[in-house]
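Input for the complex:
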Amino acid sequence: MTLRTARPARVSRRDTLAGYVFLSPWLLGLMGITAVPMLLSLYLSFTDYDALTPLSDVAWVGVDNYVTMFTADPSYWHAVRVTITFALVAVPLKLAAALGVALLLNRAFRGVGLFRGLFYLPSLLGGSVALAIVWVSMFNRDGAFNSLLALFGIEGAPWVNDPRFALETLMALAIWQFGAPMVIFLAGLKQVPAELYEAAAVDGAGPWRQFRAVTLPMLSPVIFFNLVLETINGFQGFTAAFVLSNGTGGPVDSTLMYTLNLYIKGFTELRMGYASAMAWVFLVAIALITVVLFTTGRFWVHYADGEER
Amino acid sequence: MKRGHPVVRLLVLVTILAVVLYPLIWMVGTSLKSREEIATNIGLWPETFTPGNFAAGWSNFDVSFGRFFLNSAMVALLTVVGNAVSCLLAAYAFARLRFRLRRAWFAVMIGTLLLPGHVLIIPQYVLFKQLGWVGGDWPYLPLLVPQFLATEAFFVFLMVQFMRGIPYELDEAAKIDGASPYAVFRHVIAPLSRPALVTTAIFSFIWTWNDFFRQLVFLSDLQDYTVPVALTLFIDSTSESAVGPMFAMSLLSLVPVFLFFVAFQRLLVEGINTSGLKG
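Predicted:
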C-alpha cells in the first residue's frame, strides 16, 4: 500500500507543523488507547494482578501465567479447540454461501437490488445481542427449528442445551450473515471482463469450466480479502456465545470461545494477569494466522496486473 | 456467463431468501404472541395479537427500557460525532499533508486496523479505572474518549481512500491564492468529504448501537446500562413469562438499525464493504 503524495518534494516546516496538528488526536489515541495499554498488558501478563490490589503492589510471577496456560489449564486448550473448530467450519461455509448467492445475483434482472439488500440485512443485525437472543430461542427445545422438524415427523433435540450441538447453532448464526462477504464478491464479479467468458465459450468451455478457469482465478484476490477478514472475525466471536451460555461458555464448555474465556478469566474470576497473558497469545496467534494466510495466498491469489499488493 | 434458467434461478433465490428472513419474521410474530400461544402455536404468526408484551418488556426491570434506549442513543450519537471529527482530521493529514514520518505513521495506522479489540480491553480497563473513569461520575468516558481520538482506524482508512480521489488541483489552486493547510481543510477537503463522513456516521452508529463487549465491560450500574447489556438481563430470568417481553424488547432494539437499512440501503450495501477493494 503506497501513499500518493502532493507534488512538490520539499517538506516545509509549516506543513510538518500542520501535519502534526491534524494528526494530534490520532497520535494521542495511538499512545493512550493503544500503545500504552499494550505495554501495560504485556507487563500485567507477568504478574498475578487481580484488579483489587493496587497496581504498585502486584507480584511479578515471571512466565508462570504462560506456563499455567500451556500446561496446567485444560479449559484453555479446550477454548482454543472450540475457537478453531468454529472458524474452520463457519468461515468456509459462510464464504461458500456468499459466493454462491453472489453468482446467482450477478446479472441484471428485476428485483436484483431488493434481493441483494435483503440478503445483506442479517449482516447488519446479526452481531447484536437481540438477534443472538432470537437465535438461541429458535434452537431451544420448543423453538421454531424443532417445530419445523416436527412438520416432517422428526423429533429435534434441545440444540442449544446439548454440548454436541450448541457450537453448531453458533456456526449457523455466523453463516446466516453471509451478506457482507456476498456484497464484496458481487463487486469483484463486476470487475471480471466479459471478453474472458466469451473467449472461453468460443473455446468450448461449459459453465463449470468457465467457473473454474475464469471466475475463480479472476476472483481470487476478492476471495482472499474475504478469507482474511472473515477468519479474523471468526476467531473473535463473542456476543452469541455469551448470550447462548449466559456468559459461562456452556453447556459443558461447548461454546467457550477464546474471547469469552478471556472475559471470564479477566472479569468474572478477576485473574487479570492471567487474562493479559491469554490476550497476548491471542494477538500473536492472530498475527501468525494472518502471515500464514498471506504466505499461502501467494500460491493461489492471481492479480490481473501481475502486481503484488 | 450463461448459467441456469431464469425461473430456476429465481426459485432458488426465493427459497434462500425465505430461510434468511425466517428468523426475523419469527421474531416479529413471537413478540406479539401471548405466553400460552408461545408454548402452543408453532406457526409464524399469532392468532391473537398481544401488544402487551411491549409494555411488559418496557418496564420489566427496575429501570425502564426508555432509560436504556436513551443511554444507547447518547453513546451512539456521541460516537458518531467523535469518529467523524477525529478521523477526518487524521485522514486529512495522511492524505493531503506532507510531514516527517508520515509514511511510518500511516503504516502504524494500517497495523492497528487488524488489532483485535479484545486484546486491549483488560489494560484499558485497568488504565481507565486508575483514572477514575470506570463507574465514575459519568461512566461513559471509557466508551467515548477513544472514539474522539480516531482509534477506529477503519474510518481513518476509509476517509484517506476517499480523499485520494479529490483532485489535487483544488488544493493547489487554493494554495496559490494563499490558503494555509487549515484553510484548505476547512474550505476544500472537509466539505468535499461529506460522502465519506455520511458513511462513517451511519456505520459508527450501527456498530456502536450493536456493540456489546465494551459496554458489558465498562458499564456496571443498572441505570447506566445500554440496550444490549439490559437485554442480557432477560437471559438470567429464564421464566417462561419473560419470553414475549424479551422478544418485544429485542425487536424494538433492532428498529433503529432497520430504519437506517431502509433509508440508506444502497449506501450501506455498496458503501463500506467495497471500500477496502478500491484504491
